[in-house]
Amino acid sequence: MAQKPSIPKGTRDFTPVEMARRNYIFDTIRDVFHLYGFQQIETPAMENLSTLMGKYGEEGDKLLFRILNSGDFLRGVDSGILDGENCQRIASCICEKGLRYDLTVPFARFVVIHRNELQFPFKRFQIQPVWRADRPQKGRYREFYQCDADVIGSDSLLNEVELLQLIDEVFSRLGIRVAIKLNNRKILAGIAELIGFPDKIVDITVAIDKIDKIGLDKVNEELLERGISSDAVAKLSPILLINGTLEERLQQLASLLAGNETGNKGVDELREVIDGVAALGLRAELELDVSLARGLNYYTGTIIEVKALDVEIGSITGGGRYDNLTGIFGMPGVSGVGISFGADRIYDVLNTLDLYPKDALAAPKVMFTNFGDKEAAASMKMMSAIRKAGIPAEIFPDCAKMKKQMTRANMLSIPYVAIVGETELEQGFVTLKDMKTGEQRLLTVDEVIEILKQ
Known about the structure:
There is one protein chain. By secondary structure, the protein is of the alpha+beta class. It folds into 2 domains: 16-353, Bira Bifunctional Protein, Domain 2 (BirA Bifunctional Protein, domain 2); 363-453, Rossmann fold. It is built from 18 helices and 16 strands. Strands 1-5-6-11-10-9-7-8 form an 8-stranded mixed beta sheet. It has a 5-stranded mixed beta sheet with strand order 13-12-14-15-16. Helix 1 packs antiparallel against helix 7 (158-174), helix 1 crosses helix 14 (343-353) and helix 9 packs antiparallel against helix 10. It is elongated and about 90 Å long. The two termini are 52 Å apart.
């Protein structure tokens, strides 16, 4: 007996219903990207490992999916290396490429390669899958889609304000109540200086970025393991728990970081962004979260993270300012800022809350019955006119009993069935049945088109 097929853990198949729902998400996000002036690009699923390695920190590098070299990938590899136990070294010898971990680093590589073709500031969006060798769990997959928008070639904080407005518009259209959390990497750098460990900023941010997942006590344990002194951890803990209104938190940070040039600049940048958003209005909740770090090493300024308020799930959007990501590819001094919508988590939130509009399912609006060759030929002609009017339609392909044909229409949630039998064939009409009410009317094709357009 053949073994039942399966798919890798952390990946999923999507049925037509699920794809219709996912496309509703992608179309909504794409429409808002266009509204804000972003242009679409695409990059390859695989990149050279030299492009990917070292851009996501130690944790991120471990999650890269590597691709074996083509052909005899062991040819020319020193047997001593293969006999050893250094997996990273072995992988570097037999793998030159990897699946992309996110869309931001490939975008930076794209900008450097195509710099002479682009008009800066360049506003791009990208909707493509990414891959991470993570432990699969609820809301966390090994293959998932990101929907990114970035502005590169501008230092202006107006870009951050616009991106927050864009986030607000997307989630308003999707009907998801969210909290948008903000912080600034310079504030975190200032805090690291304040507690006496400026050289440990990466270790500190990697640890505190887990505070929502593992809690403050576990974060403190990890900080100690990473070489942060107990006195410094004791100083850091109350800072991470700063509370109050948005303005009160800003004032506490300004007071705490008084005299610290890096930290003060971070507070000033955060205030400018918050004031800019406040002047325009925001439907989402806006929070200042001092513990928000976003563990990716390339962030240098504003940090953004979005949480759904009505579903327990990880962040559904994130992003921030990066000042020199293209510098690692030989194009220094180009600042950028971007956000990434986690389409798969948004999909899970919409499913949980049942927020899809009724017309999100891309089913035909009408199905023609099939009672024989002559009837089918007449139906095909009528259906052609209906499709030319931009209305999705299909015909039952086989001559079958009415019950079987109606069952298909019901299963696919097709709202109308068009019946062409002997009577309709003689008169040149069609009987249109409303599948919800059961009402039937004898109509011309033009009349059917008018009803289906409504």
